[in-house]
Amino acid sequence: LFLYEDYISGQTLQTVLDESFNLPEDAAVDIICQLCDILSPLHRCDPPIIHRDIKPQNIMIQPDGNIKVMDFGIARAGDAGLSQTATVLGTAHYISPEQAQGKDLTGLSDVYSLGVVLYEATTGRLPFEGTDSVSVAVKQVNEMPATPRSINPDIDPVLEAIILKAMEKDPAQRFANAQEMRQALNDYLAGRPVPG
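The structure assignment produced for this chain is given below.
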């Protein structure tokens, strides 16, 4: 597997959110579904490749609607050879609790970040704010976010449940992997029951 950078036209999800505050649910879900498809094979590598910095600034929306993930600069194959300090790298608003604590990471850390991105894309707000990165990281570990529907009552309750499951503090309580999150989003879009 080779990761490379090339010229990609389009705009980042961050730019879109800056301009429109939040996205229609179907547009936000489509972006996350594409991200799940991109990350799933990376997480299945041996050892798994974990992006570690999934955030709107690293998500490029091309003119045809296809998504590209940018900046694999801190992606790692497993945690071999990394110091505890190195494993914390990432943007505090989007990192998982285990990443904030410098623990060994799995693909479920990226799943958490996908949940944060979907939270922000549908509510127009980040789940946690603070005066600096450390205070935000502490909240990622210790605090529960406001429910998405408390910010945007128009969010479907089923979609809210998907967002909150992806953002569970305990990795074992999240979706088993990015593909399972993708399936839940597919079921939601199709109006099928979404397993709890």
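Interim note for the steering committee: The longest helix spans residues 25-43. The longest strand covers residues 59-61.
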